[in-house]
Amino acid sequence: MVTKIQRKLLNGLHLNTKIQCENEAGEPVDWFIIYKLPTYKIGEVGSGVDYMYLDPSLETWQLSKFMINTSQGAIGNTLSQLYSKAINKSSSSAYALYNDSPPVLKYLRGYGHTKGVLLFDLYQGFWLSHSIPHFPSFPEMGYLYPSSGKVNGQTALCVSLHYDQFLHITQHLVYLFPRLYNCSVPSAFATKLPQLAQLCAGHRPEALSDKKMDQLVSLQGEMFFTFAKSERFVDDIYTGWVAQVLNVNLLVETWQRQGHDLPSNCSLPNHVMNIKRIRLPGSVPFHSKYDHSKWCISWAYQKHLTCLGDLNREVFQMWRGGGLLCSYNTLIYKAFRQVVDWYIGC
After folding, report:
1. Cβ pair 78, 33 in contact under 8 A
2. pLDDT, one tens digit for every residue, the chain (346 residues)
3. Backbone angles phi, psi at 84, to 5 degrees
4. For the chain, which residues make up each domain, given as ranges?
5. Which residue among 113, 172, 271, 292 is the active-site one?
6. How far apart, in whole angstroms, are the C-alpha atoms of residue 157 and residue 142?
7. Which of 58, 67, 96, 149 has a Cα-to-Cα distance from 131 of 20 to 30 A?
C-alpha cells in the first residue's frame, strides 16, 4: 500500500504544497484542536488513544474515527509534512521540535515547561502547541505516539500562519526558553529569525522583560494572542497575570498533583477557579487528576475567552517559563465551556 507521504513524493507535490495544518481528511485547515481522552474515566477504562476533534467547519467536538497512536488523523496528517524527507532535508523550510520532556533524551532542568512544533517555509507554515510529553518523535523515526501519553487527557492546538507571524512566535519562545531537541534553521531564515537560530544552536537569547503579550493572525484572518512568561515572573500565569490583565474570572483545567496544586484563588479582583471534572460530548466524565491538558476559559459567557498552553496550576511551575495561546472565537469557547462538569468556585 502506498502511504500518504510516498504518494506525495511520487507526485512531486511536496515541492508545491503549502505547509499548514491539515484536518482529519488530510485537507488544509486554518486551525484545529484535539482533546485526547484519558485511559481512566469515572467507572470506565478506555483505550487511552481516542480523541475528540474540532475545527472551524464543525459546530462542536466530534469523536475521531482515528486513534492518536496512528499516523492517520489531523496530527498525523499535519506532521507528515515534517516527516517527509522532501521537506525535512530541504533548505527551503525551517522546523523546530521542542518539549521539556523530549522523546528518547534525558530530562534536563532549566528549560520552560512547554511543548510544540514549528514547520514553515518563506511563505507559510504551522504552529502545533500541545501538552504531550515525549512527543513528537524525531523526524527520521516517523510518527510515533508515546505509551506514556495514553494515561492522561491531552490537548493540542494547530494554527496555520503566514511566514511573518513566525517572528512573533520566535519572540514568544525566547521568554519560554524551550528545549529544542530537533530543529533546522537554514541561512535563508536565520537572518530574519536570528533568535530561533540561536535557540536551535542551544543558546538562550536575552528577553527584554519577564513576560510578553503578543498577537497572531492565522492564514484565514483568525485572531489569536499569546502570553509568554519567563521563570523570572514568579507567579501563577492564570491568577497573577491573565485574569487580571484581561479583567476576567477564569475557569482553569490543568494537571494538579496532590500536594503541589494551587487552590482556587478568590483573593484578587478577578478570580481563578479550578476545574475538577470534565465531560466531553458522548464520553464518560473524568477527573482532572487524569488530565494533563492545560487550558482556561472565561467564567462569564459573554467574554468568550479560551486559552490553551503550557503551565499547570502548581507551586513549582510558578518558577517555570511557559505560555498560552488565546482566542475570543465563540465556537472554541462554547466547545470548551460545555465540557466543564464541576469546578471549585469562590
Report:
1. no
2. 334 443 343 333 444 479 999 999 999 999 999 999 999 999 999 999 999 999 999 999 999 999 999 999 999 999 999 998 556 677 899 999 999 999 999 889 999 999 999 999 999 999 999 999 999 999 988 999 999 999 999 999 999 999 999 999 999 999 999 999 999 999 999 999 999 999 999 999 999 999 999 999 999 999 999 999 999 999 999 999 999 999 999 999 999 877 778 999 999 999 999 999 999 999 999 999 999 999 999 998 889 999 999 999 999 999 999 999 999 999 999 999 999 999 999 8
3. -65, 130
4. 4-200, 211-343
5. 292
6. 21
7. 58
Q: What is the pTM of this model?
A: 0.94
292 included as an active-site residue: yes
Q: Is 104 left (phi over 0), alpha (psi -120 to 50) or beta?
A: left
**What contacts 191, CB < 8 A, 6 or more positions away?**
none
Cell numbers found for residue 301: 459567557
> What whole-number distance in Å separates Cα of residue 63 and Cα of residue 253?
20
Return the CATH fold of 211-343.
Endonuclease; Chain A (3.30.870)
C-beta separation of 194 from 175 below 8 A: no
